[in-house]
């Protein structure tokens, strides 16, 4: 613990407004949160500032957008650096928001007085993805144009509402100038406003729950937030800022040729964080890939705090030592199963020809789904029969399997798909 008689600076006084005066000493430990929530907030501020500066030269039309980016990079002092900072912060925010989400989940910080904040957090995660996706189109290069074309046409697979929904986003049947202005308005207007609302509620609810989670068993030892927590927050913020600036000097945001509405790049890929969905589409019926599975996941994530659990050790990583072991085995199981199924579907079984007399929904949808679900169910069943684990650890295990499988599919899609989306090694 640090004792200080020095008066807080203006920044420190601002930080004190969003914290209580005293806090449990264990909550300050870096490994309790890894500072991820604060890093997200910092990235948001950096994105707003760099985004506002980018707006000075950006022209939101198909004729002007690409050239305005070239102009910014070549003719404006630090223009390229500014664009890189915006791009790297946005990419990082997808990663840190996701890590923050799983930190909250694996520390069981989503129950009781924190359940509402978990829901606000999920909306923030959706906003992070949506902000990233709408920004993706703005450079209007081949990468942007075709990634958004792929993503919006994926939406069309959703039964009944798919086509109208895709048309709503695009402002018509194809990605064009209307889509660009729609995305620009969402990206630079509506989404940041929604962020401010959800983040304010989020911070307020963290305070209402008396700070971040700690294990409930021991007696709390309260220490002053200033300087104990505030000094650590400032240190983390400086390290993050310095790293982003450094990376932005050496790592350029991608920019291919100006978008051609007729010639697509080969392969055409979705933005990296949606590559898991594009990979899934290559193995399973589209209704499963873009509707049944994602909707089931979203419902599951929103419902987590409200399941009936018998034994929850809030604030304890993975609920117990046994839970830690189970999560590790679940991740290994998911890596193995997902890799094997990708190889089976790619080289060994053509699901379309496998059961020609069945409707495609069954032969290419339900059947591959069961190939994943049955081994997973068997794995979970035996583990829980042998170890008699509590329900919460079953849920942790299921989530670990889902997340790991998605990451494997994303990796395969990003790095192991070449021309014609064929597997390459
Ligand atoms: C823009 C995105 C986000 C920002 C700026 C943000 C910010 C924060 C901050 C500053 C904290 C307190 C410190 C910490 O736990 O690191 C926090 C806690 C929390 N966040 Fe987030 N968060 C974001 C996204 C999310 C997401 C995606 C989820 C999960 C669905 C989530 C759920 C929670 C919960 C439940 C807590 C309370 C945790 C506890 O008491 O230990 N947040 N968030």
Written account of the structure:
This protein is mainly alpha-helical and 425 residues long. It folds into two domains: 8-258, Cytochrome Bc1 Complex, Chain C, CATH 1.20.810; 275-425, no CATH class. It contains 17 helices and two strands. The chain has helices spanning 10-17, 25-28, 30-33, 36-55, 65-75, 79-106, 115-137, 142-155, 162-170, 177-208, 225-250, 275-281, 286-303, 321-348, 351-354, 360-387, 391-415; strands at residues 22-24, 222-224. The protein has a two-stranded antiparallel sheet with strand order 1-2. Helix 14 (321-348) packs parallel to helix 17. The termini are far apart. 31% of the residues are buried. Bound molecules: protoporphyrin IX containing FE (HEM). Residues 33, 36-38, 40-41, 44, 97, 100-101, 104, 109-110, 114, 117-118, 121-122, 124-125, 128, 199, 202, 206, 209, 212-213 line the site of protoporphyrin IX containing FE.
| Lateral strand order in the biggest sheet | 1-2
Number of strands: 2
- The secondary structure category is mainly alpha
Integer-rounded radius of gyration: 23 Å
Instruction: Give the rounded overall mean pLDDT.
Output: 93
CATH class call of the largest domain: Mainly Alpha
Uncertain stretches: none
CATH fold description of the largest domain: Cytochrome Bc1 Complex, Chain C
User: End-to-end distance, in Å?
Assistant: 52 Å
Query: How helix-rich are the residues, as a percent range?
Result: 55-70%
- If helices are DSSP runs of H or I spanning 4 or more residues, what is the number of helices? 17
How much of the polypeptide forms β-strand, as a percent range? under 5%
Question: Tell me about the biggest sheet?
Answer: 2 strands, antiparallel
- Summed up, the domain count is 2
Q: Name the CATH superfamily assignment of the largest domain.
A: Cytochrome Bc1 Complex, Chain C
